[in-house]
Amino acid sequence: RAALQSADLFWLICFSIVFVPESGCRSADASSCHEVKTAYLLRQIGPVKMVPDRPGPGESLRVCVHPGPSCCTSKMEDGYMAAVRSETLQKMRSYSFELKYLIAGHTKAYQETFESLVTFTSNLTTSLFDSAYSALAPDCRPLVFQLFSSIERHLSGDSILSLDNAVHQFYDDLFPLVYQRLLNPGLGQASAQSFSSHSVAHKLCLRRMRRDVGPFGPHPRLLLSSLSRVLGVGRALSRLLKLAGEVVNATERLTLSRECGRGLVRMQYCSHCRGLTLIRPCTGLCVNVMSGCLMGVSELGTPWKSLVVLLQRLAATLATSSNHNSMELALLAARNHVNDAILYAQLHGPHITATVSRQHHGKGCEHTRAERVCGPHAGGQVARLSSVPAVSHLLATSATSERWAATAGPAVNQRLQDRSHFRELEGSIQRYQWFFSELPEMLCESEMEVEQHTCWNGQDVVDSHAGRVVGSTFEAKRQNPEVSVRNVDPVLKGVKLRLEQLTQ
């Protein structure tokens, strides 16, 4: 915006020195179109040879029709039409550049924060298996990676992914490993040849049983509840920032209608046909034309304000979250939830093994070999191998978890808990609450910054605009005296609908 205003001011000074007497703007010499040629060239509208040397009758004009001689032709009007559309869109982009940069910057910052946090906590959870459950570690690493990848996609606003399914899938896949290697470590060795042929079916059967057997007690539910409560805020913030970026991009790709182009030419360039290359359009004329051209953009105003208010609230929540609702602590605590779930299974090992043996017939396993496929013989060899693990082992594992929580946990949380960017978003986005509602007026302000005693009303030089200026309501804008509004751009209609749906 500043660059455009500086350029306009520079050319205004040049024109004032070369062409304009002290009395202000004047009509061109009746026998010359020199000033029009100069303006045509400087604004890079088209080949200067298209401008006649002397005013003509102007009979072929379709937009800039006025009595008397004219320095314009129909081809020049086409050039003005293309130029004024391009100039208007460029001015819109210059105004929205800071907003677009703000949204893109915060979106990237949050995405990097989420990715870093999820990667860190994923590695911490993996280290649990390496240090405390080495028998499970090789097969559990991909399970942990898949769980936290799902959490990361959930945080990024993936509308398809279910956090509930991700957590349950993790524990479904974990149960066969815990059952075979911790609760019944002799299952494979006891009958290796007979068991190996049914290994896949055995695991599938155990997966299907997990939710009925409940081998991990309340801990899967506690993990899901903890994550759902606090990750919802981060997920909502990601989705709203993504939508905000889509809204700005859609307005920058706006297609200005031909009727809008005619109104812009009347406002901006028809005065040139009269040799008045420095006269500015009247404020009322500009507001009417811009309101008609940006009808679809203005319609985004109310739902956009709702989006900005939501962004402020979410940013404020993340900036001031207590430890109880901290997203960082919820992710870091996933390691302990998983550990507690495995400890619960070990403590209740005999009961879980007996329950699996009783229930295997209801899970679609082959009845003729059910004992070998989905459960050990009740009271048989493997059942005797399943026993409560040594208390010393459980205490050691729990102590390891507690030491980590007391030392690494707070240090990591302090390092990751930089909330300055949330506070920055909360304050900076507020300035743009009414951005799209006020954009027509903002564009006109840049046109009116040089004070003049007269202005161009689309047909002649006047002291002030005497016509009606449209109001802010949709119906008022449909009665626009300068640009008739028929249909709103379908892309903007779609963006408005998504804004309304998501903010609600």
TrEMBL record:
Q: Which InterPro entries match?
A: Glypican
GO BP terms in the entry? cell migration; positive regulation of canonical Wnt signaling pathway; regulation of protein localization to membrane
List UniProt keywords, sorted A-Z: Cell membrane, Glycoprotein, GPI-anchor, Heparan sulfate, Lipoprotein, Membrane, Proteoglycan, Signal
Q: How does it sit in the membrane?
A: Lipid-anchor; GPI-anchor
Domain of life, per lineage: Eukaryota
GO CC annotation terms, alphabetical: cell surface; extracellular region; plasma membrane; side of membrane
Which Pfam families does the entry mention?
Answer: Glypican (PF01153)
Localisation: Cell membrane
Q: Where does the record locate the signal sequence feature? A: 1-30
Quick one: where is this thing mainly located? membrane
**Can you tell me which family this protein belongs to?**
Belongs to the glypican family.
Main role? Cell surface proteoglycan.
What protein name applies here? Glypican 5b
